[in-house]
Amino acid sequence: MAEIEIDNFEELQEEVQEVQEQETQEVEVAQEQVSNKEKLMRSLVSDDDEVDELTAANIRQMLDAAPRWFLSQWKMLLLVLAGIFLYITNGYQAQVEMMKENELEAELKDWRYRSITRVSELTQLCRQSQLEQKLREQGDSTLAPSKVAPFIINVKE
Questions:
Q1: In the chain, what are the domain boundaries?
Q2: Contact present, 39 and 21 (Cβ < 8 Å)
Q3: Contact 45, 62 (CB under 8 A)
Q4: H helix count then E strand count, the chain
Q5: Pairwise CA distance, residues 36 & 52, whole Å
Q6: Contacts for 94-101 with beta carbons within 8 Å, 24 or more apart?
């Protein structure tokens, strides 16, 4: 029975070696694929003028790597999207405020013109000649223009 166990042991060792060799080959292939994906991503991101040919396999590898990259960079992407959203809303808000400011300036200009018109009408109505003419029209004879020239009073300090 000891010989059977030894025979089985040797077979088991051979099987273990075969399995280990298969695993190392799979790991090497996986590493090669990852390195190819990294090379592709680096070539796309780099500023070099040399561009590798984009084959269907390279594009497929890039698409396989993209979801992992997005998942690892989700916080940065969220921050960028929030910044874009704030930039757009700020632009709209500034535009609304500028329109409101222009409207208020137009209204202010209108009120200034109305004020100038009222002051000019009031000034015209308060002139001495206008007051005298109105009193004459009403038949008030107590008010008459002075026939004596006004005196100039010199004050010495």
A1: 7-72, 85-126
A2: no
A3: no
A4: 4, 0
A5: 12
A6: none
